[in-house]
Amino acid sequence: MFLEFGGPGIVPVPTKKLCTQDIINQEVVVKPREYYVITAYVPFWVTSPKLHVSFRAYGGSGNDIKVYLFDKDSFINWENGHSVTPLYSTEKETIDEFSIPVTSGKKYYIVIDNTFSIFSKKYVKIHIYLTYYQ
What separation in angstroms does the CA of 59 have from each of 2, 29, 37, 86, 114? Predict the structure, then answer.
């Protein structure tokens, strides 16, 4: 018996490699009545990109912070006081994590919002990374 692999009509399927790219992995300080913005650009050549965000807040009486994820247009509208629906948002939270599919070739804005706090600055340990196939 003779078996032939890779003969006529059989085309090997190239496998794509899962890649990870850190955007930020550090502690940031957000003053009272202010917000901190982190931008993440998703390269146009990646496939199936996903943005992953995890954070933990310290400071003030509630150890809490709000976090939003916007695309470019929504961020500009939000920053100018217009009503928008973020791609993801939290209420005041101490700790959270989320992953969301995003679009290649676009810029995203992660906002760490402490505008609700009158006196307390917040320390936020945040890790944001992108996964994609190449």
Answer: 71, 10, 19, 25, 11
Q: How confident is the model at residue 3 (pLDDT cuts 50, 70, 90)?
A: very low
Q: Where are the domains of the chain?
A: 30-133
Q: What is the pTM of this model?
A: 0.87
What pLDDT band is residue 12 in, cutting at 50, 70 and 90? Answer: low
122 CB-side CA count, 13 A: 31
pLDDT average, residue stretch 68-86: 97
> Is the CATH number 2.60.120.680 carried by domain 30-133?
yes
| C-alpha to C-alpha distance for 57 and 31, rounded to whole angstroms | 13
Element (H, E) at 100: strand 95-101
